[in-house]
Each structure stands twice: as structure tokens, then as C-alpha cells.
From TrEMBL:
Top EC class of this enzyme: transferase
Family: Belongs to the precorrin methyltransferase family.
Protein name (Swiss-Prot/TrEMBL): Precorrin-4 C(11)-methyltransferase
Alphabetized UniProt keyword annotations: Cobalamin biosynthesis, Methyltransferase, Transferase
One Pfam family from the record: TP_methylase
Enzyme Commission numbers on file: 2.1.1.133
Taxonomic lineage: Bacteria, Bacillati, Bacillota, Clostridia, Eubacteriales
Keyword Methyltransferase: yes
Length: 251
């Protein structure tokens, strides 16, 4: 059996209870060493074989996992955050499907949730934005033209950008070309939930300089939008004059 497990954003106690149990039981662990906190590996039992996938190809990862699974071992493929977000798990699952090898997926706390926690922020404020766009700048992995930052920015929604902290000048240009004012609040969250987490609040126009001044070029999320500002409406759910299935309106 192969278990794809989301390790969470960084902090070693932000893995799920299920993910932690799977790690404790694993005979083989293949972890994404570039981003997964190695402290998670302390949960593994003695004799567990551990591989860092950072220097491995898909084929090499499969060559480790498949024979182990066929030999009846429990294999944990440990991904950062939640495996469904830029996790490259589909290509692994397709190989396993083709070979008839059983697997399951244990979700994790994505770093975009860790970043909101670090910012003490709510992405979906009434009257500000009710939509969160998770995206990235095109890098060596292209982004379909219809999803260019410029086009996504035209919605004025909350945006969380992965894999983009090395191109903040271009990112700001695109956000502004899409319709955001240069003074729109923005934040850089570096290593959300890790012990060395850092949070920088700025504006879209200030993103590049802020990153430069603080030596940030990777392992960061960029968040953009009015949710980082001070103006919003109260929720209807907790409004005394608003009745719903669980509560009557007060006079
Ligand atoms: N599956 C992961 C994302 C993997 S893509 C998740 O759900 O979070 C890798 C990118 O995620 C990094 O380039 C960075 O932009 C972001 N990232 C991952 N962990 C992070 C963290 N702890 N803090 C800030 N950004 C993080």
C-alpha cells in the first residue's frame, strides 16, 4: 500500500493525526526534501527506509515505491502542505493505477492556510472578497494564457501566489496591469509555520523591494488584496438581526 501524505506547511505538529500515524507505521518513506520539514522523520520507526525525492526523478521514485508496495510494505510518500496543490501526485497515481497498485491520499494543511494563520487574516471578508485565487507566475512550468496573473487579477479577489517569490517585479506589473492599484495591500509570508517564519506586510508596488531587503527569494507565498486592509462588513452569520436555521434574530 502506498499512502500519499500531506505533511502540512512546516511546523512538525501541523501534520494530521492520520498522517502522523501513517509515518509511525511506514516501512519506507519518500519525502520531498526541498520543502518538507525533516523533523517529521523523527516519527518513523527504527529500520524505516528513508529517501529524499529532491534529487530523484518520477521514475526513480516509482522504482523505490512500487517494489516496496508489492512486497507488502507500507510506503509513505510525504509531500509538503497538501498534496493536491502543486504536488505532482497525479503523475504518480497514474503510474500506480496502470500497475494496479493500491494507494490512498491523506490531506494536509496547505501553506496558504498556514500563511493566513501567520497573518491573522481571513481571506474571505464580506464586502471585500468572497473568492480566493490560488495561482502562480509562469516559470519553467507554463501557465495557460487564460489564467495569466493579469487576467486573474481583473477579478479583484483575494490572491495567493505560490512559486513566484523570485519574480516579484514582474508579478507586481502583472497584478497592476490586471487592475489592482499599486497601493493594494500585499504580504510576503516566508516559511509559514516553520520556526523561522517571517511575515512582511507591504503593497503590491513594494513587493519586490521588500523581498530584496529581506533576502527572500523562495519558500514564500505572496498574498494580495483588500483582505489585508481594515475595511469590511460584519458577517451575516453572527449578526444579531439576522435569523438562520440555528438562531432566531434578536429584536
Ligand atoms: N503542496 C504545497 C505547495 C507546494 S509548491 C502546499 O499545499 O502548500 C511549493 C511552493 O509552496 C513554494 O514555492 C512556496 O511558494 C509555497 N510554500 C510551501 N510551503 C510554504 C511555507 N511553509 N511558507 C510559505 N510558502 C510555502
Amino acid at each position: 500500500m502506498i499512502q500519499f501524505v500531506g505533511a502540512g506547511p512546516g511546523a512538525e505538529d501541523l501534520i494530521t493525526v492520520r498522517g502522523a500515524k501513517l509515518l509511525e507505521q511506514a516501512d519506507v518513506v519518500v519525502y520531498a526534501g526541498s520543502l518538507v520539514n525533516p523533523a517529521h522523520l523523527a516519527r518513523t520507526k527504527q529500520g524505516c527506509q528513508i529517501y529524499d525525492s529532491a534529487s530523484m526523478t518520477l521514475e526513480q521514485v516509482m522504482d523505490v515505491m512500487i517494489p516496496a508496495a508489492q512486497a507488502g510494505k507500507l510506503v509513505v510518500r510525504l509531500h509538503t502542505g497538501d498534496p493536491s496543490i502543486y504536488g505532482a501526485i497525479r503523475e504518480q497515481m497514474d503510474v500506480l493505477d496502470a500497475q494496479g497498485i493500491a494507494y490512498d491520499v491523506c490531506p494536509g494543511v496547505s501553506s496558504f492556510c498556514g500563511a493566513a494563520a501567520a497573518l491573522h487574516a481571513e481571506y474571505t471578508l464580506p464586502d471585500v472578497s468572497q473568492t480566493v485565487i490560488l495561482s502562480r507566475m509562469a516559470g519553467r512550468t507554463p501557465v495557460p494564457e487564460r489564467e495569466s496573473i493579469r487576467k486573474l487579477a481583473s477579478h479583484g479577489s483575494t490572491m495567493v501566489l505560490f512559486l513566484s517569490s523570485g519574480m516579484l517585479g514582474k508579478l507586481a506589473e502583472e497584478l497592476i496591469a490586471g487592475g489592482y492599484a499599486p497601493e493594494t495591500p500585499a504580504a510576503i509570508v516566508y516559511k509559514a509555520t516553520w520556526p523561522d517564519q517571517r511575515v512582511f506586510r507591504t503593497t503590491i508596488a513594494g513587493l519586490e523591494q521588500t523581498a530584496k531587503d529581506n533576502g527572500i527569494s523562495k519558500t514564500a507565498l505572496i498574498t494580495v488584496g483588500g483582505f489585508l486592509g481594515d475595511t469590511y462588513e460584519r458577517s451575516k452569520l453572527y449578526d444579531p438581526s439576522f435569523a438562520h436555521g440555528c438562531r432566531e434574530a434578536s429584536k
